[in-house]
Amino acid sequence: PSPPARDPHTPPAMAAAAPSATALAGAALPLPLSARPQPARFSVALPRTAPPPPALRLRSVRRLAAAEGGTPGMKETLDKVVSAHKVVLFMKGTKDFPQCGFSHTVVQILRSLDVPFETLDVLANDALRQGLKDYSSWPTFPQLYIDGEFFGGCDITLGMYAYALSAWYIHAASWT
User: Fold this and answer.
1) CA-CA distance, 101 to 73, in Å (whole number)?
2) Across 52-110, where does the E strand assignment appear?
3) Cβ(121)–Cβ(89) below 8 Å
4) Pseudo-torsion of CA 56, 58, 61, 63, nearest 10°?
5) Could you report the per-residue pLDDT of 38-75, keeping only the tens digit for each?
6) Where is the Glutaredoxin domain (predicted)?
């Protein structure tokens, strides 16, 4: 009999292992969804270690807002929004339906950390989108604000997440 057709969603490493599994069993064995790698979820406080690299430090919204551009009304509105919520993500789409991969990545990071957060869709309002670029001096989206301070975009959030996870693993290794 011919081998079963490869599922296009099956990772190549799993697809390569499938023929050997069928040879052992003598029949085709479907790979369950649970066999696919799942992202780790952490909801623990990470230990305090060395300070993050300078490129990953928070930048004050007040300092960024002092930069040129934007209307006074927009600046005041954005000041209120970022100070009214602990974590705010200005993104393309919504947290339930992100419209770009970078926004999706930041949403997944925040969810994996069990962080409650608010989102605003910048695609719904051109003035908001341009006003935020001027407000933060950051040209791309998503833009993450924590405790009223601009944290960064996807690259900085992902870098900080990886930095925190590596610090957690190093600290956890010292317990054993």
Assistant:
1) 31
2) 59-60, 87-91
3) no
4) -90
5) 555 544 444 444 444 444 444 433 343 344 445 668 88
6) 87-150
